[in-house]
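job 3f2a | input accepted
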Amino acid sequence: MNTLLRWTKAYPAVALTIVVAIVGLSLLATPARGVAPWLVGGYALCIAAWQAYGMVRQLMRGHAGLDILAVIAIVAAVSVGEVWAALIVVLMITGGEALEDYAENRSKRELTALLKRAPQQATRLLTAPVGAGAGSAPASGELGDERSETVPVGEILKGDRLLVRPGELVPVDAILLSDSAEFDASSLTGESLPVTRARDERIASGVVNGSSAIIMRAAATARDSKYQQIVDLVEQAQGSRAKTVRIADRYAVPFTVIALVIAGIAWWASGDPVRFAEVLVVATPCPLLIAAPVAFLGGMSRAAKEGLIVKGGGTLEQLAKVRSVAFDKTGTLTTGRPAPRAVHPAEGFTEEQLLQLAASAEVYSSHVLASAVVESVKARGIALLPVDSAEESATNGVEAVVEAGTVRVGKPSWVAEAAPDLERADIGAGELAIYVSLDDRFAGVLVMRDELRPEIPAVLAELRELGLTNFAMVTGDVAATANVMASQAGIDEVHAESSPVDKVRIVTAMQPRPLMMVGDGLNDAPVLAAADVGFAMGARGSTAASESADVVNRFDRFDGVATAVRIGKDTVRIALESIWMGIAVSVGLMLVAAFGFLPAIAGAWLQEVVDLVAILGALRAIRGKRR
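job 3f2a | predicted structure (627 res):
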């Protein structure tokens, strides 16, 4: 009973239509049977008037709608005495909303799952553990006499100490204070195996804690944390529904004209106005109204399952037509996890001191190379320094305040602003240098070697199979390194030592179009926004890159680029197939009705079947084409 009440409240028009049908049928078995046609016909005309009102409002907004066919069909059916056929058309229109909701919920399953997993509450610690000194933390699971409170995740402030119990989501981006912990990061990275993190490492929100309680220090508010950024992207994607109907709008006016012409000819040739109504009741356009949006939502859901957040149906259309692609290098074509080749401390510093300073600051950087520096330093058993404050400078590096002074880590020109005695290192092809300073003293340089992702050649080959013809590398790295990496990847067009402004200019001029730009860093945000399709490798990339991109890859897998293009092509193909199938069957039924072989009431029920088949066909976009 509760389910029936909820359903009635959600779809009152459907419930009222069914009630009218039951009452009308009941009246036919009574002496008042003559009232039934008036009740049913009057109700159908009221619904037609309401639909006409909505249609006019849409036309005033500049959208050519298909509702006119349903309105004319209802009016025509009532006018010639086919009131029950008119009621079936009404049921199709009102029931279409319920059917669409089901189809949308089914097609948005993966997107909705991401939203439901968002952390909602957190456990905040109120007092320091007994006997603990400032800045210390208990071992995993040892809480002493600390008190705690459960608060909404939005109330967590940067610096708050948090307790995360076994199996709980990490509520905000945080620094691990316990000695070590194991996490399930599959929702963020797609990695199915648990990952182990050590004390002082930064942990992204949304990952699941392992088997022991841990203590963390909030490094960001919920709004600025990794999982909330994903939630924001998903909400943007779900809010883009208006774009997904454009592909069907292109068929609206021609279909309407064809239906009216066939109905008019049938009336003229037969001399029977009933024939006009019989044609139009099978011309109602639900396949066009519902199938295309359902297909696009299904494509977006399929993409989400692959770790791709697609911001709207318009993006899927563009992906289906992409002909060129440009790539950033570091963290996109390369692994973004370079191995240290050499450590060159400046006079007055040891190798251990240089590594310790660099890694302590890089913990607070969003650059794809930062985690590589931290991991390589921890692998050597070097402890990180406590950081009082830290700030990242866009495209330059990160500055952190430690007990010994202010540390800068990043590009030579930026570090040299603080340390004029900086000396540039000689690096070879495929290598990069990270410069470090302490206050006004040059501390040294780390020389790292990055490697090409092993799957690059196979993915580029797949993109060529999908119809892409032009490939380019657009990077800020030096030409010697860029050319070597491009040659290994099989990319002929290389634009090296490019500033963010240069990247926008280069990508804007590239042909053929549409063009997809694939990048990950903060300096890629402008060019991602300038491309026809911006694709952000968001697993380790910056927030700005993810926000400016049209597609965000939550998993650090390069094959997501080809997957996105394939999903775009499959989705558009399935949407068009669903539309054309609905048009073809409807036109066929109209022709049968035009010759008088399809009574209005039978045609109305057949159209319901056509709608259902078209929508089920559109739901294939969730699965895609089997390969």
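job 3f2a | Residues 129-142, 241-245 have pLDDT under 50 and may be disordered.
job 3f2a | closed
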